[in-house]
């Protein structure tokens, strides 16, 4: 992983030195184990702040909309797909970006690791697919694959789909994963069980909007829940209002969500927010053979009409 | 203050005796983490925890509460009149609250109960509250309470402070409310002979706190210079302006007032608000004096570490619980920001 960081620093330095970009967006080392902080570097002398490891989960595409600068941006597979979506949705131009592609073997879930270890973690290192965590008087070695974020465990686009330079050879894509096992389980429920399932998932939501704000898709100048004239949604933790927020937000992401996991990673109370978006992702795949953010040249299914679009669901 | 000893085998029966006189709250495991919740009859607080995900401030200051109800039906004689709704002010006790979180309730009190304003609901709920704090023998690496005006054995705010000594607790009974509670629980074994053990445990716990902040120079900074410091853009860059830090914080006290109407029935509620949201300062004209995230991030830290310091001259508006540090989705760390603010010299780069 340190070779990755070296590569990123080298490219960042070159881009800043020769004026290709005004800033490079990447990660700096976190103040705690298992999380790094998104940052920008404008000064070529400071590129050594940039790091890379399996705790760079935050989706950096979230930091691009409406920026005016020329930007070098470090991008994993999912980040790159959200960058494509931003370009297609006119949030930034391709010409403004120098995309530093990072083939990714998945990002770890800090909460999963803390739960597995059950003790306070003071430092973390990784090598050869193993995560070594140490704390007060102990050391434990974990299998990285088992500690991945849920979305990373079923990711089939680990390599950047768009880039100006890639820092390493492509990684092998996962092929033997069932992306929708959880959705199928919900589809199989009767309506009452399904209702209860979603009620339980939302239990504990504090309406902090971390899921929305971490999501690269949620760049609306005024979100519908923040609209006050008229006010569509109440602001308390009333169940109906909380449901309305989550479900409407999910529908706003239909055909756009790349399953990057930003929402779940951000949630401070552990709501599996992807459960609201994945059914829509599955429908888009099955109905329109669509995966979001894979190409700059194809319009998304929800803003195009084709005579042959399936319509069996309209009764 | 006196010290009593509570054998752990007597703890549960004592707690059960309390449930007739108090609504009890305590740490409860909810999925992967602990939160404070009302304890059902016979339910024990789970004291095997380090810190709760959400702070216990909601026991005295709920995230959402209805203040008034009214009718818009003009056939009713009292239409358009806000009527205060009755609330429960019966005695309540939080068992196992951490010393930093009790300190935070005192800190928030400055906002809700002062010579200028007395918030009736806060004042009455706080008056009804007895706190039984549990000292921290094993603080975690993100705890910086000892440099934030409190500490793992701070007894200055709690009614009772429990120190876990293995097979038993030593309890410092600090107030009359505390005396009343231990009396009702039937805890009366003299522990004064072992009082020194609490001090030893406190020293040991304080020594385990590795995370420290420097705040000594904050008061002397020129507010406008700090406001214009060069580091805010760098600090704020990663921020996504969610409300995680403010909602988890035990000392964030800001609220929003909302009217909700269904048909002709309306209510006026108070909800926690967050200075991270653009709506927090959006004017009716559409103008927003804090128009971007850098301004909002700066406000949060300036409020906690500068405006409060200057206004009240009793330290910072933070008790060092570390919740915002642990749960910020993008790792914005108040300890780092405090360090930058405290070291700040105009004209010198310190980012």
TrEMBL record, chain A:
Molecular functions per Gene Ontology: iron-sulfur cluster binding; metal ion binding
PROSITE patterns in alphabetical order: 4FE4S_FER_1, 4FE4S_FER_2
InterPro entries (alphabetical): 4Fe4S_Fe-S-bd (IPR017896), 4Fe4S_Fe_S_CS (IPR017900), Helical_ferredxn (IPR009051)
Record field: transmembrane: none
Keyword Iron-sulfur recorded: yes
Top-level taxonomic group: Bacteria
Key words, A-Z: Iron, Iron-sulfur, Metal-binding
Domain 4Fe-4S ferredoxin-type: 248-277
Protein name stated in the entry: 4Fe-4S dicluster domain-containing protein
From TrEMBL, chain B:
Keywords from the named record: Iron, Iron-sulfur, Metal-binding
Domain of life where this protein originates: Bacteria
InterPro entries hit by this protein: 4Fe4S_Fe-S-bd (IPR017896), 4Fe4S_Fe_S_CS (IPR017900), Helical_ferredxn (IPR009051)
GO molecular function: iron-sulfur cluster binding; metal ion binding
Keyword Iron-sulfur set for record: yes
UniProt domain 4Fe-4S ferredoxin-type: residue ranges: 229-260, 305-337
PANTHER family according to UniProt: ANAEROBIC SULFITE REDUCTASE SUBUNIT A
Protein name, entry field: 4Fe-4S dicluster domain-containing protein
């Amino acid at each position: 992983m340190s070779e990755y960081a070296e590569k990123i620093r080298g490219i960042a330095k070159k881009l800043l030195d020769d004026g290709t970009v005004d800033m490079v967006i990447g990660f700096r080392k976190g103040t705690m184990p298992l999380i790094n902080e998104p940052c920008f570097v404008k000064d070529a002398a400071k590129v050594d702040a940039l790091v890379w490891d399996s705790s760079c989960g935050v989706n950096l595409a979230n930091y691009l909309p409406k920026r005016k600068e020329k930007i070098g941006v470090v991008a994993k597979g999912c980040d790159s797909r959200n960058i494509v979506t931003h370009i297609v949705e006119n949030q930034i131009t391709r010409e403004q970006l120098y995309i530093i592609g990072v083939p990714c073997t998945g990002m770890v879930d800090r909460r999963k690791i803390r739960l597995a270890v059950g003790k306070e973690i003071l430092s973390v290192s990784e090598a050869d697919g193993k995560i070594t965590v140490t704390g007060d008087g102990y050391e434990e070695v974990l299998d990285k694959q088992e500690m991945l974020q849920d979305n990373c465990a079923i990711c089939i686009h680990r390599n950047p789909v768009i880039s100006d330079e890639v820092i390493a050879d492509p990684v092998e894509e996962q092929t033997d994963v069932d992306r929708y096992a959880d959705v199928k389980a919900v589809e199989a429920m009767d309506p009452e069980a399904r209702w209860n399932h979603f009620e339980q998932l939302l239990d504990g939501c504090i309406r902090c909007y971390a899921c929305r704000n971490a999501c690269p898709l949620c760049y609306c100048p005024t979100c519908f829940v923040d609209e006050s004239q008229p006010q569509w949604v109440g602001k308390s933790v009333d169940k109906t209002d909380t449901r309305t927020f989550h479900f409407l937000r999910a529908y706003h992401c239909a055909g756009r969500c790349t399953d990057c996991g930003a929402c779940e990673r951000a949630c401070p109370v552990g709501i599996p927010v992807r459960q609201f978006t994945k059914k829509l992702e599955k429908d888009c795949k099955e109905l329109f053979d669509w995966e979001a953010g894979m190409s700059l040249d194809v319009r998304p299914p929800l803003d195009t009409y084709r005579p042959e679009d399936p319509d069996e669901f309209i009764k | 203050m006196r010290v009593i000893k509570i054998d752990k085998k007597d703890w549960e029966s004592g707690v059960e005796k309390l449930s007739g006189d108090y609504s009890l709250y305590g740490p409860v495991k909810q999925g992967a983490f602990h939160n404070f919740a009302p304890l059902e009859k016979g339910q024990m607080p789970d004291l095997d925890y380090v810190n709760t995900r959400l702070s216990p401030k909601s026991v005295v200051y709920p995230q959402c509460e209805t203040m008034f109800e009214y009718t818009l039906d003009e056939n009713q004689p009292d239409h358009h009149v806000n009527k205060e709704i009755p609330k429960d002010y019966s005695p309540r006790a939080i068992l196992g609250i951490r010393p930093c979180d009790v300190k935070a309730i005192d800190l928030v009190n400055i906002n809700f109960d002062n010579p200028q304003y007395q918030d009736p609901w806060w004042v009455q709920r706080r008056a009804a509250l007895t706190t039984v704090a549990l000292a921290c023998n094993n603080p975690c690496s993100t705890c910086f309470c000892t440099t934030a005006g409190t500490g793992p054995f701070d007894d200055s705010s709690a009614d009772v402070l429990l120190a876990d000594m293995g097979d038993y607790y030593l309890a410092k009974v600090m107030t009359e409310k505390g005396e009343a509670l231990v009396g009702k629980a039937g805890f009366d074994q003299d522990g004064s002979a072992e009082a020194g053990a609490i001090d030893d445990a406190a020293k040991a716990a304080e020594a385990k706190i590795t995370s420290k902040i420097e705040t000594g120079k904050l008061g002397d900074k020129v507010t406008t210079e700090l406001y214009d410091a060069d580091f805010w853009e760098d600090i704020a860059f990663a921020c996504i302006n969610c409300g995680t830090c403010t909602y988890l914080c035990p000392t964030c006290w800001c609220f929003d007032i909302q009217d909700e109407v269904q048909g002709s029935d309306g209510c006026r509620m108070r909800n926690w608000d967050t200075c991270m949201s653009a709506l927090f300062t959006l004017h009716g004209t559409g103008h927003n004096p804090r128009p971007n995230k850098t301004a909002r991030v700066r406000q949060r830290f300036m409020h906690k570490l500068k405006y409060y310091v200057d206004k009240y001259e009793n330290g910072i508006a933070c008790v060092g619980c570390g919740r915002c540090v642990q749960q910020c989705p993008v790792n914005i760390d108040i300890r780092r920001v405090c360090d930058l603010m405290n070291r700040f010299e105009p004209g010198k780069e310190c980012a």
